[in-house]
Amino acid sequence: MPDDCEASASPQAKLAAAIDALLPQTQCTRCGYSGCRPYADAIARGESDINHCPPGGAALIDALARLTGRPPLPLDPANGAEGPHQIAVIDEARCIGCAKCLPPCPVDAIVGAPRFLHTVVAALCTGCELCIAPCPVDCIEMRPATAVAGAPQAVPPAHLSRARFLAHGARTERRSSERAAELAERKLTAREMPA
To answer: CB neighbours (10 Å) of residue 175?
Structure first.
């Protein structure tokens, strides 16, 4: 039974939720939006076409066409190409433990700590590629899942990736709020100290 929020949601919000449920939840930003939900919202508002998600590819475009009543379109090449599931792999010999790859991973698939070796949990990696650019030593590369020993051959289930993405965002927001409160407290204490 739907809760009160779902029952009172606008048709556009319901459509956005249905679109988001179809998206692969890679959070890769290749669609031009900051994640899958913003892309779903843009489609529901009529501000974006249904053909901007390379991870979802043709199958997703067909599903979105059926859901929205829009004609199917070929994948927009400006957003990338459809291909097999890829997984980020860290070259352990070159990793310097800088931890710059940790924050951009939208599903926390990279584990490690500053000044220690980092690794990618292949079963969680959505193939978003967001960890590559921040790496100062270029020790991260994308490989087809078929070339990674023990890796699943498909993108992780969307509902699990969505849950991990939401948890990542909540934790990031909480840490930011805690840090802001700590800094405000330090400033207040510094002002109150006698000169």
So the answer is: 10
Bridge partners (DSSP) listed for residue 87 = 143
Q: How far is CA 133 from CA 59, 102, 104, 130, in A?
A: 29, 12, 9, 7
- Looking at domain 84-195, its CATH class is alpha beta
pLDDT tens per residue, range 29-67: 999 999 999 999 999 999 999 999 999 999 999 999 999
Amino acid at 162: R
**Which among 143, 138, 140 has a CA at the least distance from the CA of 87?**
143
Neighbours of 129 (CB within 10 A): 18
- Report d(CA 124, CA 34) in Å as an integer: 19
* Encoded tokens for 48: 């974006």
CATH number corresponding to 4-79: 1.10.15.40
